[in-house]
Design goal:
Length: 498
């Protein structure tokens, strides 16, 4: 087993990995930027090293500095978390050359799956159904128009190197093609330093279903069932659950077999996720494979009782998978909400500053994976994810009730958060009965949060304001915390209009 693991990430996922290391008796080493000097992960790790200025390019994405540090401090492995270097084949190759174990797949698997067009080709060869479209980059507007005509509009132009919901454009008719083609290419070049784009059929109203897989270095593979991540904003997930209320046993058998075939096709080892779109008839199509731990991994941990991070570390150290497929079954239902510092009533503008009150929910079946605590700063430099609130219960219905209860208990002061917005989604009657697809948020909420039931909303504001008012009375102990905002009740209330 490893003696020391360097964690090349920050926020909640760095904290998650530090906790796994501590339980395994492995030393954890953190890196931190200027902005993260006092962050939770910096304080929790056994050792912490300043890596550079706040912008990610100067710190969490400084490959040379990170590898040099790993060697200097005698780290025998690196856990990348998600984002940053987690899917960067060059970084993994550099570690392989320096005999530092990467806690994840090989650089070869990552580069095979890193290009969406290459991945689509590989899946096609291995009989994994893909979304209809091209497996090569489109060379010209003329070619693109011809192919789109064949596939049939609407189509989606996608960046081959895309990720994070960026670099995608829906085209409904041929006269939109040329300008969309140029714009998508420009965006792809800017965001991914690669302007290859390809065409997929635009699947109408699908659900996003993904399968957690795991492989070891000895050719053993298992799946840990599916997650549903259809509640998305701008193609980014905000609520995830396991299992999916839409997937029946037969569909589950088919989609998990396809996911294992995808993993085998690229000789995959460690944790990975195979993403699919599923139409209303339960036909499913490969979207992409994420060659890392997913943000939403805790819902799978809840329903399977497997610690995915500890298993990642064990498999990276060369051990066999610690469980077989027949050991796994789905127990209950889990839902995750991503808690963001952002303003739903102001186009989801990120909200920055210090957290000046922090009371996370707890109680039966509630897990909060947070990267922050009282006094922590949310800055402009990174994603404004504060934490992930995950609730488990024996049925979906009671997991929903538990999530509503937990969201209501969650108090984060000093910043605007999306907590009330999440509550409205979870309480929505269509969410409750499982009647939704990837367009749910757009259809139900985005044409204006104005559609909301004003009275209920105001009651909610009043209720939470009352909690803040009572905290106000006992807040003298917080007086020394850095505050950007003053703390009059008015301002607390302003924050409640989230
Ligand atoms: P990224 O790598 O940027 O996350 P994905 O290919 O995984 O991109 O797609 C992200 C989301 O975009 C999907 O979950 C879905 O909501 C939407 N999407 C992607 N491809 C299609 C498609 N062909 N038809 C309809 N929606 C799509």
């Amino acid at each position: 087993m490893f003696r020391k693991i360097l964690i090349t990430n920050r926020g909640e996922i760095a904290v998650r990995v530090i906790r796994a290391c501590r339980e395994l008796g492995i030393k954890s080493a953190a890196i931190y930027s200027d902005a993260d000097k006092t962050s939770l992960h910096t304080r929790l790790a056994d050792e912490s090293y300043h890596i550079g200025n706040s912008p990610a390019q100067d710190s969490y994405l400084n490959k040379e500095k990170i590898i040099k540090l790993a060697i200097e401090i005698g780290a025998d492995a690196i856990h990348p978390g998600y984002g940053f270097f987690s899917e960067n084949a060059d970084f993994i190759k550099a570690l392989e050359n320096n005999k530092i174990t990467f806690i994840g797949p090989s650089s070869k698997s990552v580069s095979l799956m890193g290009s969406k067009t290459e991945a689509r080709k590989l899946m096609e060869r291995n009989n994994v159904p893909i979304v209809p479209g091209t497996t090569e980059a489109i060379k010209s507007v003329k070619d693109g128009l011809k192919i789109s005509e064949e596939i049939g509009y609407p189509v989606l132009l996608k960046a081959a190197a895309g990720g994070g919901g960026k670099g995608m454009r829906k085209i409904s008719s041929s006269n939109e093609f040329e300008s969309a083609f140029e714009a998508t290419k420009r965006e792809a070049l800017k965001s991914f330093a690669n302007d290859d784009i390809y065409i997929e059929k635009y699947v109408e109203n699908p659900r996003h279903i993904e399968v957690q897989i795991f492989g070891d270095k000895h050719g053993n593979y298992v799946h840990l069932f599916e997650r549903e991540c259809s509640i998305q904003r701008r193609h980014q997930k905000i609520i995830e659950e396991a299992p999916s209320s839409f997937v029946d046993d037969l569909t589950r058998r088919k989609i998990t077999s396809a996911a294992i075939a995808a993993a085998k096709a690229c000789n995959y080892f460690n944790a990975g996720t195979v993403e699919f779109l599923m139409d209303s008839k339960k036909n499913f199509y490969f979207l992409e494979m994420n060659t890392r731990l997913q943000v939403e991994h805790p819902v799978t941990e809840f329903i399977t009782s497997i610690d995915l991070v500890k298993e990642q570390i064990s498999v990276a150290a060369g051990n066999n998978l610690s469980f077989k497929q027949s050991d796994l079954m789905i127990n209950g239902h889990a839902i995750e909400c991503r808690i963001y510092a952002e303003d739903p009533l102001n186009n989801f503008l990120p909200s920055t500053g210090p957290i000046i009150h922090y009371i996370p929910p707890s109680g039966p079946g509630v897990r909060v994976d947070s990267g922050f605590d009282l006094g922590s700063q949310i800055t402009v430099h990174y994603d404004p994810l504060i934490s992930k609130l995950v609730c488990w219960s024996d049925t979906r219905e009671s997991a929903i009730n538990r999530m509503l209860r937990a969201l209501s208990e969650y108090v984060i002061g000093g910043l605007i958060t999306n907590i009330s917005f999440l509550k409205m989604i979870i309480a929505h009657p269509f969410f409750r009965i499982g009647e939704f697809n990837i367009n749910f948020l757009n259809n139900e909420f985005m044409s204006g949060l104005k559609k909301l039931d004003d009275i209920k909303y105001i009651q909610e504001i009043e209720r939470v304001s009352a909690i803040f008012a009572s905290i106000q009375k006992s807040k003298s102990s917080f007086n020394n915390l850095p505050t950007k905002k003053t703390d009059s009740l008015n301002q607390w209330q302003e924050q409640m209009y989230e």
